[in-house]
Each structure stands twice: as structure tokens, then as C-alpha cells.
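Work Package 3 (structural annotation) set out to generate three-dimensional models for the target panel prioritized at the project kickoff. During this period the team completed the workflow that converts sequence records into C-alpha cells, so that structures can be stored uniformly alongside our sequence database. As a representative example, we reproduce one entry of 723 residues exactly as it appears in the project archive.
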Amino acid sequence: MKLTFKDRVFSLSREKKLATLLTLSNGRFAVRGVFELYPLSLGTLVSHVYDYVPIFYRELAVLPEVSKLKIIVDGKPLDFSSSRFQLKRTLSLNSGIVEAALKWKGYGGELEYFSYRLVHRKRKGLFLINATLNFRGYDKASLISYIDTSVGNYFINDQVMIKHYVVEQVRHANDTLLLTLRTLDNKYKVSIAMKNRISKFHERSFFNEHNVLGEVFTVGGNSSIEITKYVYIVRNIDSKNHAQDSLKNIQKLCEISLNKLFREHTGSWRRVWRRIGLSIRGDKHVEKALKFNAFHLLQVIDDNREYTILPARGLHGLGYRGHVFWDTEIYALPFYILFYPEYARKILMFRCKLLEQAKENARRNGYRGAQYPWESADDGFEATPKEIPLDFFGRRIIRIWTGEEEQHITADIAYAVNKYYEITGDKSFMKECGLKIIFETARFWASRVKYDELKDLYVIENVMGPDEYHPHVNNDYFTNLMAKYNLELAVKYFEKALKNNEWFNIVRELNINEDEVRLWDRISKKMFLPCFKNNLCEEFEGYFNLEDYVVQPNININIGEKHIPKSILEKIDRTQIIKQASVVLAHYLLSDKYGFSRDFIKKNFDYYFKRTTHASSLSLPVYAAVAAKLGLKELAYTMFKYAIYADLRDIYGNVEDGFHVGSAGGSWQAFLYGFLGLEISEHGINALPNIPSHWRYVKVKINVHGRSYLVEVSDGVLRVREI
């Protein structure tokens, strides 16, 4: 299955978008999809490598660009601004390869160029690009293979750049280039080795000038040549001898046949698709879009490390500075749980690794237990800026409240831990840290709530829910319901631990006593939820008193805020307009836990759908899933298509900032839990399909409790069997 993109003119904005769509990664590092001959370098993103930055605390560091090649004919570089050319690039989802085919005419001659590139799925440090060139009509040509160290992170706008690295060493010996660098905080060191193999050349020379270093090969003007560029990247967290290891590995890899490296990589991807086994007869476009989302979700997991840092925009760009949000646990994690539970474990292990930092966050804020930050970098402390200047003089500043008030992420992570355990039965994970997360987050909520004597209920004041248009609210429905569930989980697992000696050791280690558990139980039973006798739940306490405004008057989906009058936008926090699924999301996540009726869910769906802008890419997948479960097939399918094409069609206009990890995971949830109607718990698998009428046959393979199942829908009947 392939995606093809064609160019006849060079467009900077289009190229930045394609840089995301054509990104190749193996979870260790990512090479963005800029065409290697274009005059544009966006750098390399290496997982875990963060550095300090003003305002944004820590951010993923852009490291030197490693993919670049340059062609010079008769002393002139290829000109893509005025010369005639045809460029076709193809991403093969089946094999994890990007191919490029270029025909270029200019300076009295012409050339043909074909290349393929890969970031090796199994050999974690390896990027390679193989190119074949045919020159005609020139007296002399040069081919340059280089690394660009001029790149860095743009700060606030494109006029100011911060380089988060210092080049410590450049060495060229035995036709191999070694570049060693360190981040400014001295926490990370990265070594990059490059070696070129070329079929024929007249002269070969090394150069290092103006932040560009590499090799120049002089060839005949009318000739055909082939070059393979090998790059090997090693971090100090992989090896103390990272420089030596990068050199040793690149020498070893150059001795292995290109075909063998190619087969290893493509074979690994073929096994991935066999394991997922997706097929949708009657809607191949949707099948391709789902596979595109799965491809990029699977690319960002390093299966050789104990834990994975999964930023909201992947390793595909610098959106949100490479920070980790609730997108990971609530939207992306369910995809991994069902298809690659071993990857889901690695994602949750990141939260395990930073549990002590979450406890310190709670202590700093005056609470007990563990409070996870709204935005996480590599160190686990709050990375959300409190203010963002819009100009260099600080005259215009946006105040950011999410880091202080969007506290539901703590309950979201506890929810994800339980979801993982229910579907996998991974007792060792719960013993290692899953129980600790659930207990310590419950402790946070027990210290965070306040008893309201007039209500005779527990309340949570001064928060922001998923909506994000309304800061400083009391009793946000989503937050309160998720906190209630978090506390209930802690009570449930305490009771389980009483019957399990290994688990009870965790209880003793954390000094949990029965009085504390009784408090958790009492708070959960008396948590205030702003719902009314007419089955309508309030976004937050006082929400129904705000000015009403309908965003979605009919089935035609209005995405974003462009359809809202300026007069309304200026006072949006005083209206009932919400940004994304919130009450609807709460019912989607917890309907099986609390037995919400169909009428209850639909009444709230109908009310909030009309008032939601879907300005967040996380919104439409949830609405699509719930609509499908409600049997609203036409509406569900419309929203589902928006969700699955969020990146491919750049629906939100920001794909150049990276891949929408949460939206991609959410689109798979809409497919699995919405249209297929899967209901999976520790008790087994149930399903009630609501697939579109033109889907003649659907199949997919999932993993539950260590066993593989084939899920098929044909003639409206769903069958699940172990394979």
C-alpha cells in the first residue's frame, strides 16, 4: 500500500508538510521527509534528547540534518526555483521505504535521479539512502554527501533559532566521518558516523566549512553512478562508548550487503502488517488512511528500550516542543494495547520511571501522592509555560493556565494503567509500578478534593477540563468523574492486594492503611457530579448559566473557530461553546464502568455536539466513536473521515509541526470501539458492530490476555475467534 506525492515546483510550505507525512523513524531517531536534494534542512530528532530552553522549560532538541545530498553540474547547483523538473515521492506503508524519482532539465543538459531511504527498523542507529544518477549533456558533475550542523530549534517565531548542541569532535579517517556533539546542559551526548559508498568517481575530498561537513565526489558529466550514504547514530544513554560504537557499527554495516539490510527492514514491516491484519472491503481509502496512522504510531516506539517517550506530535516535528500530554494515555495507548501490548507497556513505563517526580510535583503544589504534570519532557516535571510572549518585547503575552489547572491527567494515567491491565493481565507490570501509580494518584485526589458542607459532597475547585475554553471552573464533570474512578480503582486494587501477598507488599511499602482506603471509598461515593434529573450533565458547575451559542446547526461539521463570529470569540469563555469532547469523552471512557444508558449518553451527545468547535484534533475521533455506538452511522462516518485524514489532508493546518499522535490513536478507537463495537475487559470480549453499509467485509487481529484473536464482520455479523 503506497502514498504518492508529485511536485513540479518547489513550495516551502508544502515541503514542510511532506516533511511530516514522509518522516521515517524507528523510535530511536527520526529523519523528516524533506527531499534530500532540496535546499531545506529541518534537522534530526533523536528520542529522549531534550535540553533547557527559556519559557518552555525543556524541549526536544533538533540535531544536525543527516539526509542531505547535493548535485552540481558544470559548476552550478541544481536550481528548483526556475528549472523544469518532475519529482515523484512514494511512501510505501508495507515496507517503510520512501522512494524519490526526479527528472530535471537545465544548464543545457538533463539528469534522472532515483533514490530510496529508510530508517532501519531493527538496526536502531542506522539511516541509509541509496541513489542512482544519470547525467546527460554536461562536461563535469559533482555529488556531495553531507551533514548540516547549522540547524536548530526555532524560538517563538522563525526569526530566532536556538542550537541545543555543541559539536565537540569532528574526525575524518578511512573515508568515515565522525561527529560527536553534546546538549548545552551536558546531559546528552550523541555521536553520528557517516560513510559513503559510490560506484565510480574521479576525485574524492572531505570538507568542513560554514557548518556543513561531508564528502565531494567528482564524476564525469555524461555518466551513471550509484551512491549509498550510511549514517549511524548512538546516544550516551545507549552506550558510554557512543563514539566508538557509532564507528564500529557503520564499518560493520558497510560490509553487509545492501540487499540484506533492505530485506531485514522490509521483512520486519511485513510482519507488522500480518500481525494487525487489517482489511476493509468496500472502502480501501479508509483502510489506507488507517494504515497510514498505524504506520506512524508504530514508527515512534523503540522496541529495544525499557520505556518510550511518546510526544504529542511524535518524532515528526516540534509541535508542543516534544512534550508528552494526556494524548498518549487516553488516545494513543488503546491502539498499542490491542495490537502491540509490549509497546503499551513501554509507554506506561515512562510514567513509572517518573513516579517520584510526580510525587514531588504534588508536594510542591501542597498535595499528597502523585500529581503528573500536564506537559512532560524527559525529566517528569511540569513543562507547561505560564506565559508565552507573542513578540520579542513582551508587550503581548498569552497566559497559559493548563499546567496549573488541567489536573485530570493524573486520573487519566491511572485509568490507562487499569485499562492496560484489564486487557493484558500483565501482573508483573502491576507489581513493578502499576499499583503504585493507582495508589499514589488516589492519594493526590484525596488531598485535592474539598468537602462542601452545604452539598454534603466532595468538590474539586479551580480546575480546567479538556474543554480548555473555560479556566478556573469548579467541579468540571470530566475531572470529577475521572477522579472518582481513580479513587474507586485504588479501593478495588487494595481489596485485591489483601488476597495477593506480592501485591500486599506494595501496600505495606506505601504505608497504606484501612483508614486511608475508607477515606478513598467515602470520597468516591460522595463526589459531586453536576448532573440533573433530565439526564443532562453540566460541563462544569455553572456552565448552563452561560450564554448559549450553537456551533453545529446540522450534520455538516464545522471544524475550528473560523465559523464563529469575532464578537463571540472575544468572550468565548462566557459562552457554552467548548473546544473538544469532554462530557461526551467521560461517557465514552466510563460507560461500561457505570452502566450509562443509551438514552443518557445520546442526550448529552446531542447537546454538546452542537456546541463543540472540534478545534482540537482529539475531539472528532471521540464523537465519531460515540456516534457509531449510538447507531448514528452517517454522522459517525463523516466525523471518522475527518479524524483519519487529520494529517493526510492537513485538516488543522499545522501538520508541519508534526504528526497528530492522539488523533491517529483516536481514529483507531473509533474504528475498533465505535464501528466494530468491541467491548474488552478482564472478563472477555463482547461486540456489537455498527459498520457503514458499504463496508462489505472487515477483519483485524487483536491481542487480549496474551492471545491473538481474529475479528471479522460480514453481513452485519461479527465473529471473534482465537488464532
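The first helix runs from residue 12 to 21.
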